[in-house]
Design goal:
alpha+beta, 3 domains, 7% strand, Sodium/glucose cotransporter, globular, 603 residues, four-stranded antiparallel beta sheet, three-stranded antiparallel beta sheet
Length: 603
């Protein structure tokens, strides 16, 4: 019922936005008239994805306090965005990241490479949203995984195709406050249940243990690691042998077949899926302590932070939001409000992870730790009686689907905008028709890919998208905004090298799963080496090709950094004369002298 209500509310609120969407500018950037507070709520709605609502808690359950760097990085990334990018990017007058790339460098090649990267990052980010929707619906109803993906894809497509940015701005603002309510209110009930249970310590010595006899059915074949000898009651297969009854497992690894039913006695240590590599005892509460599957923890943490801090400014759906502000000052104010909203939200997921360590450790056996937020209310509040458990479970389910819908909507708009301007331009009767067709493609492709098995968790998959964004658009934006000598050749080389290195690491991790050793750490968290390499290549090649510096670079730098109150264009001209002279606002010059114009102002 919670899923149905959230879906209907999303469509109903989106219908209000549809009535307000009249021009192409409404579809792309909400006519650049969204106030900072309203826009901050919408950004919070689209930014708090499946990784934030479900993934952080699941990782805390398995790995402990080291995972708290995820919410720190997610939030602090907006501080970097505020300082380096927000206002100048808004002053550029661009609709999309490829627009900015072409405005800054006057190159269709840079624009096309940027377009491919936007679509790739968008699709990679959409994958965990659809996977999370399948996991959530399967957890609460037992439905097949594709059902949740289909619901999210259908609702998102309906909203985006109908009303574009104007519509989803209203929807995402509503969904942020729904998500905050859904994750915060149950916490107060869970604290009461935890205190009534004697407030047990989740970091007690030894591996996590079940508090009561627990039966787990394994939907897939899993390789588990046993940290302490344990006796399990199994109906299925263990290491290829059919078992109907107790089986003793010593320290090491074992393979349990798909469809097996495993019962753990009260107090039994929980074997964990190898790729999860759960921490044990005090290690769980101690930073920078390695464990199975998470070796080289110091490198992993710093590389992750680098990806999150600098990847935020390169996320297409995040940057698209800043184009909807009236001016650069409003963009800065929006960013400050966003930091506050995110800081409040991220107080709650770690609590779910800590309680999951006590009341849902069996999730380590299946590897479905991302489901801890959904399962915890039912397990902890059942003893309180009354409707509390059902109410809390309905709230977190509603919040989870709001997370999938809002983030997917933002990503769909950003990808659809690029597809319509760079792939479908001139092929359809209007810009709005191109946008709507792009929205369908933006949803269908990752929706189909989500049916495949991912070897990474929701939060880890999102982290990989951040790594690609940090290795490509971060250097382009920082150097494009703050370094006048960036050339076309330098930008192209940096985008290709950064995107190739980070993209190759991402494919290796998703397809092959996380591996151990230094090589596994470098692939699972590539930002520490791919981001500096991209910057170095972009700067080095630009210095060697300084003769190809775009002649308009100086004027554009003035436009990016001059406060709006001066009412100056890039060369000190009034805005209307500057726009007619350079095409920076009404059209984009191409190397051949033609003009590629942004969408017209009528549908």
């Amino acid at each position: 019922m919670a899923v149905v209500l959230v879906s209907l509310a999303t469509i109903g609120i989106g219908a209000v936005g549809l009535r307000l969407s009249r021009t192409t500018s409404d579809f792309y950037v909400a006519s650049r008239g969204v106030s900072p507070r309203w826009n901050a709520s919408a950004i919070g709605g689209e930014y708090l994805s499946a990784a934030s609502f479900l993934g952080v808690a699941g990782l805390v359950l398995a790995f402990g306090v080291d995972i708290l760097w995820y919410p720190v990085g997610y939030t602090a990334g907006y501080l970097v965005l505020l300082v380096l990018v927000a206002a100048p990017l808004r002053r550029s007058g661009a609709y999309t990241l490829p627009d900015f790339a072409e405005i800054r460098l006057r190159s269709l090649l840079v624009r096309r490479i940027s377009s491919v990267l936007v679509v790739g990052i968008g699709w990679l980010y959409l994958l965990p949203q659809f996977k999370g929707a399948g996991l959530a619906l399967r957890t609460v109803t037992g439905a097949p995984p594709w059902a949740g993906s289909l619901i999210v894809a259908g609702v998102v497509m309906a909203n985006v195709v109908a009303g574009g940015m104007r519509s989803i701005t209203i929807v995402q603002a509503f969904q942020f406050w729904l998500k905050l309510t859904a994750i915060a209110v149950p916490v107060f009930l869970l604290v009461v249940a935890w205190q009534l249970d004697g407030a047990p310590d989740p970091s007690s010595p030894g591996p996590p243990t079940v508090r009561t006899a627990t039966t787990v059915r394994l939907p897939d074949t899993v390789d588990v690691r046993v940290e302490e000898p344990v006796v399990l009651t199994v109906e299925g297969t263990v290491d290829g042998r059919t078992v109907h009854g107790p089986v003793s497992l010593g320290v090491g690894t074992a393979r349990i077949g798909a469809g097996s039913s495993v019962t753990l006695a009260a107090g039994a240590p929980v074997p964990h899926v190898e790729q999860v590599g759960a921490s044990s005892g005090p290690d769980w509460a101690t930073p920078f302590v390695g464990n199975t599957g998470r070796d080289h923890p110091v490198y992993r943490i710093y590389s992750l932070l680098l990806a999150l801090l600098f990847g935020t400014m390169g996320l297409p759906h995040v940057l698209t939001r800043f184009y909807t502000n009236p001016d650069g000052r409003a963009a800065r104010r929006t960013t400050l409000v966003v930091i506050g909203l995110l800081g409040v939200f991220y107080l709650f997921p770690p609590f779910y992870g800590a309680m999951g360590r006590l009341y849902a450790p069996d999730l380590l056996l299946t590897g479905r730790t991302d489901a801890v937020v959904l399962l915890l209310p039912g397990r902890m509040l059942g003893s309180l009686g009354g409707p509390w458990a059902e109410l809390a479970a309905s709230l977190v389910t509603a919040g989870a689907f709001a997370a999938f819908l809002s983030t997917s909507s933002g990503l769909t708009v950003s990808v659809a905008g690029v597809l319509s301007q760079d792939l479908l331009r001139g092929r359809l009767r209007s810009s709005v028709a191109g946008f709507r067709t792009g929205a369908v493609l933006a949803v269908v492709v990752p929706g189909l890919l989500s049916l495949l098995s991912l070897r990474t968790s929701l939060a880890d998959t999102v982290g990989l998208a951040f790594a690609i964004a940090a290795s490509t658009f971060c250097p382009l934006l920082v150097l494009g905004i703050w370094w006048q000598r960036l050339t076309v050749a330098g930008a192209v080389a940096g985008l290709l090298v950064g995107g190739g290195l980070a993209g190759g690491a991402v494919l290796a991790t998703i397809i092959g799963g996380s591996s151990s050793g230094l090589a596994g750490a470098l692939l699972a968290q590539p930002a520490a080496w791919s981001v500096p390499t991209a910057f170095a290549v972009m700067i080095g090649v630009s210095l060697r090709t300084r003769g190809s510096l775009p002649p308009s670079a100086g004027r554009l730098m003035v436009r990016l950094h001059a406060p709006e109150r001066l009412h100056l264009g890039a060369a000190g001209l009034p805005p209307d004369r500057h726009e007619r002279a350079t095409g920076l606002h009404t059209g984009l010059h191409t190397p051949s002298g033609g003009v590629t114009r942004p969408p017209p102002t009528d549908p």
